[in-house]
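Entry 12.
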Amino acid sequence: MPHFNRRDVFRLTAAGVAGMMLSPSAAGAQSGLGAGRILFGQAAPLEGPAAALGIGMRQGILAAFGEANARGGVGGRTLELKTIDDGYEPSRAITAVNTLIDEDKVFALIGPVGTPTSNATQPIAAAAGVPFIGPFTGVESLRNPHKPNVINVRASYYQETEVMVDRLTRDLGAKRIAIFYQDDAFGRAGLTGTRMAMGKRDMTLVAEATFERNTTAVKMALIEIRRQKPDAVIMIGTYGPCADFIKLARSIDFRSRFINISFVGSDALAKALGPAGDGVYVTQVVPFPEDTSIPLVADYQAALKALDADGSPGFVSLEGYIAGRLTVAALERISGEPTREAFLAAVTGGGAFDLGGMKLSYGETNNQGADDVWLTVIRPNGTFSAVTAIG
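Predicted 3D structure (tokens):
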């Protein structure tokens, strides 16, 4: 994965430019169309504890755009991406999105990372009439009530937590389930989904413990959860704190099953865990990134290699690639000059998008995209395997 120097803003060429704080305004915001190009914007973490998520999403989007540009772009226009580092903090995300919309006049926002940041910036995009494509979050607030400018590509957190509880209770026979979650809108979305899934089974959580976003202060949460002796711990967080929790748990011989939600950043989690990762489960919302029998994955790997010869396939960058591929496919459906309105209409009114092994479906009041959830486990060598049950 390419290394980024300490800058806030990265263009396709990796040249840095300074971000500025601007108030949200639809007035004067143009379409992002230039001479031979279409400019997209992304606010995402490029440094800090969640950096691997923003970098991975960016890498996947660039791979999809590069693939299209190698064929001459769309309608003779190349696709460009400007990314501003938001540090996975809502206030910085707001600044970044105001800059992208009001100053850079981006055609659309793509690949924003996180629930608190997306919840803070989606209304700004909506007010400006700017599409909000492929947010890296499964939060329900970007699905219901319907938000016409949002185009999701992944299953929701409610769907992921339902699979978690279903597999834990059916495969493992778990009766005592605890949750470790980030104390913000993201963590609470996972908590709500877990409670809903437990309630369907007349069950309640035996323990709930939190940590603060962008920290790895997990010891008190571990003590609280361990005291209840759970069979399994559902984890709603990013790779840093979740890895620290699991490693500390292993060091004190706390042998509960650990299952993480997709937003964790699977590959970064496995790397951070090292040998302690053996047997840790993660739900996924994209196909297995090593399975080249799936045409979409084969295309992704080729595009990733063309972008970065040393790039390694991963779940996060594959999700970014899917968002990029959907964007290209929607643009290709537009007859005449592309506009933001025509782009959204191409997605919601054009039927399903078959990306080659993964279908995304939309409608006038449906912005979900896909409903698939897969289960994976970390093996002793740090790699992932797709599994159908928790063992």
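Annotation: The chain has eleven helices and 17 strands. The first strand starts at residue 9 and ends at 10.
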